[in-house]
Automatic annotation (TrEMBL):
It comes from the Bacteria. The keyword Protease applies. The lineage of its organism: Bacteria, Bacillati, Actinomycetota, Actinomycetes, Micromonosporales. Belongs to the peptidase S66 family. Residues 205-333 form the LD-carboxypeptidase C-terminal domain. The keyword Secreted does not apply. It holds the Pfam family Peptidase_S66. GO terms for molecular function: carboxypeptidase activity. Residues 16-131 form the LD-carboxypeptidase N-terminal domain. This is Muramoyltetrapeptide carboxypeptidase LdcA (Peptidoglycan recycling). SUPFAM superfamilies: Class I glutamine amidotransferase-like, LD-carboxypeptidase A C-terminal domain-like. It comes from Micromonospora cremea.
């Protein structure tokens, strides 16, 4: 595999694109979006530039692709941030102009359904960044989470190695965006219990690949995942969404990766802390623990069958829970099971 191609980073005062290649939720929740934009200006010193479909729900995939391509083509734009996820970005990426993207690589930040774009850029040889949603993380109710903002600041402005830190508190119970008054209230948080390590005590260093597990399943079905040989030695990132897939479904998706020959390619697997609460499934704390245990068991079972020598690390804060650490996608990661340390190079 070629060396990772890290795009040039922005500087305070630069213009950055704010796009909605997936869902145009800023149009439904402008108060959350405006809070995120204000923090982007005040906390990071960056000037957000919106594109025509940023606040449009149900925009044509070709129009969304046109906006994303235009953001990469604009020489005055130095980074691209997705506002939020969704569920149909897989219909957008075929309309991107890959020649433009290759000729104008820029740091792209997104997660969840944005796994489609992250994977697309990875196949073009461009390092992107898993995390940093404008609505969810920049627009967090109450106050910015220190871990999220420290990680995002480092990912935006530096190219150094960065040690990830286990969260001392975490949450998966967001405030209701439909009520603007809730933006003043801190989210419900629970005590953190650190990372959970499994597998051999060894050190793995490699490029990252993966993302939201449900989206990876779609990408497999659409035949948009690189061959196993090209991903060999990578650190696999997996996290699950607010749709709360069952442990059985998690196992089956990973089994599909195994049958394709992919799972055996990864010497280390980082598993994002599982979100276990949503508005239509308001689980108790005990129910959340049971859900997380079932998901952990599913990952453990699949890896035991297809990647028995892999280092596994659970409850890393890079998924659909709060806080969120930024992970370079296609960039370098160090997973040190001897020192119980995870570092990434931004």
């Amino acid at each position: 595999m070629d060396a990772p191609r890290y795009p040039t980073k922005p500087k305070p005062g630069d213009r950055v694109a704010v796009v909605s290649p997936s869902a145009g939720l800023p149009g439904l929740f402008p108060h959350v979006h405006e809070l995120g934009l204000r923090r982007l200006r005040e906390e990071f010193g960056l000037e957000p530039v919106e594109y025509p479909t940023t606040r449009v729900m149900g925009a044509d995939p070709r129009d969304r692709a046109r906006d994303l391509t235009a953001a990469f083509a604009d020489p005055t734009i130095t980074a691209v941030l997705a506002t939020v996820g969704g569920e149909d970005l897989i219909t957008v990426t075929p309309h991107l102009d890959d020649d433009v993207l290759r000729a104008n690589p820029k740091p792209y930040f997104g997660y969840s359904d944005n796994t489609n774009v992250l994977n697309h850029l990875h196949r073009l040889g461009i390092v992107a960044y898993h995390g940093g949603s404008v609505l969810v993380h920049l627009g967090r109710p109450g106050a910015p989470h220190p871990l999220t903002f420290d990680s995002l600041r480092a990912a935006l402005f530096s190219s150094d190695w960065y040690d990830l830190t286990p969260a001392t508190e975490w949450g998966d119970e967001p405030r209701d965006w439909r009520d603007p008054a809730t933006l003043a209230e801190e989210p419900v948080m629970l005590p953190g219990e650190g990372w959970h390590w499994q597998g051999p005590a060894r050190v793995v260093r490699g490029r990252t690949w993966g993302g939201n597990l449900e989206v990876l399943n779609w990408l497999l079905a659409a035949d948009r995942v690189a061959p196993a040989a090209s991903l060999a030695g990578s650190v696999l990132l997996i996290e699950t969404s607010q749709e709360l897939p069952s442990g059985t479904e998690v196992y089956r998706i990973l089994r599909n990766l195994g049958e394709r020959g992919l799972l055996a390619s990864f010497p280390a697997v980082l598993v994002g802390r599982a979100k276990a609460w949503d508005f239509d499934r308001p689980h108790t704390v005990d129910e959340r623990r049971a859900y997380v245990a079932a998901q952990r068991g599913a990952v453990t079972r699949a890896c035991a069958e297809y990647a028995p020598d892999a280092v596994l690390v659970f409850d890393v804060d890079f998924g659909h829970t709060d806080p969120q650490l930024i992970i370079p996608y296609g960039g370098e990661a160090l997973v040190d099971a001897e020192a119980r340390r995870i570092a990434v190079r931004y």
